[in-house]
Design brief:
It is a single chain. The chain is an alpha/beta fold. It has 3 domains: 9-268, P-loop containing nucleotide triphosphate hydrolases (Rossmann fold), CATH 3.40.50; 287-371, Arc Repressor Mutant, subunit A; 376-447. It has 16 helices and 16 strands. The strands form 4 sheets. It has a 7-stranded mixed β-sheet, with helices on both faces. Strands 2-1-4-5 form a 4-stranded antiparallel β-sheet, covered by helices on one side. Strand 7 (163-167), helix 5 (175-190) and strand 8 form a beta-alpha-beta unit. The structure holds adenosine-5'-diphosphate and magnesium ion.
Amino acid sequence: MVVKTATECLITLEGVSKAYQHPNGQKISILEPINLELRAGEIVALLGPSGSGKSTLMRMIAGLIPPTAGQVLYRNRPLVGLNPGVAIVFQNFALYPWLTVLENVELGLKAKGELPETRRQKALRMIDIIGLDGFENAYPKELSGGMRQRVGFARALAVEPELLCMDEPFSALDVLTAENLRFELLDLWLEKKIPTKAVLIVTHGIEEAVILADRVVVLGRNPGRIRAELTVTLPHYRDRKTAEFQALVDQVYKILTNPELSCETVTVPAESAAAVSQPQPPQSAKYQSLPQVRTGAIAGLLELLEDRKEKDLYRLGQELMLEVDDILPIVEAAKLMEFLVIQEGDLLLTPVGIQFIAGGIDQRKQIVRTQILSNIRLVQQISRMLQAKRNHRISEELILDILEAHFSPKEAMRQLKTAIDWGRYAELYSYDEPGGEIFLESEDKAE
Ligand code: ADP
Ligand code: MG
């Protein structure tokens, strides 16, 4: 039995949701009501595919943007304006190029109203702790990416935030630099060299989440929502090669690769140290969302699967040195076309998938045509409209109007581009780019 100790609750999200209003008045839901607590003493990872609302959630916790509904509590009091207990580290470092390292680090302290003398002292101390001494007077452009992000960390930590928020802080760095910095940060935290009480890290990297976090909160998208929460009790520093670590990573992979899966059905292997709790079932009746993937990428993945013995999605990703964000959309697209199924983390080709691989160009096009016509709602809608119109032409605005009822304008455009790309490949319709029109070629009309 898990005994819960009474811990200080720093942040409480009570039914916090976010929606944006489209210029046409329609509301687009970005995040469904979220309930979440961040407690003192823990590192929490917010993990999810891009577009699942991770950054939005973090910004609401920091008080940079208000929720549409629900409330954010800081130390049990409703948050008004900026959260005084939070500092953020951004992915792109967000440094001022015209300020020196020292001046950049002093910024947050200045905003807090610290006197110049204290400001300097605290900044210099943090510069020392973070391994930047000797670079006080350098300008950001003179520094490597890793050193720049150190400035980002020093600036955030100098104000001694109770909650350190990081939005994909390592993803702009090369693998080795990222790994170094990750462990240095962990070291500061574990050795209590920083007074920070809790850490929230936004990431799309499963391993990064499992390496660092005490709790991994998995978000899903369209709309953003919590799909699962896993507690990680493996002791630090964690070894990626152990069976327990791999089991956890597999588990999270399984959740992420099955967007439709209700997490109540995810079972935790007995030997793993994870516990799935608080499942929040996905929304019903939502518009099918297409991953932004070109047909060539799908063919590439299927061919690879046939060529290689490796069927395990996670290990295949590692072998190809692909991040989860790179490979998942391709897998998702192949699944939508019924070319493969995922079973226990393995990618298995279906008979149609095997037929596709064996086919020549024309057969492949024919197969994709059948598959998208029977599985992809947007493709079906476009085809039907084209058949119905006497001149067999429709403007993309029309499709965008339909899509924008379900997606943000940017996402609607991506959905459209994907449907156009797939339909063109399958020779279902053509696209006139400058005119923004989808149309049928004369031979298409005959059918
Ligand atoms: P993540 O960080 O998980 O990639 P974000 O929180 O950045 O996701 O964005 C989630 C969704 O919200 C995306 O579809 C994005 O396009 C949309 N979005 C974010 N900010 C705005 C905004 N100001 N107006 C409209 N849509 C937005
Ligand atoms: Mg983001």
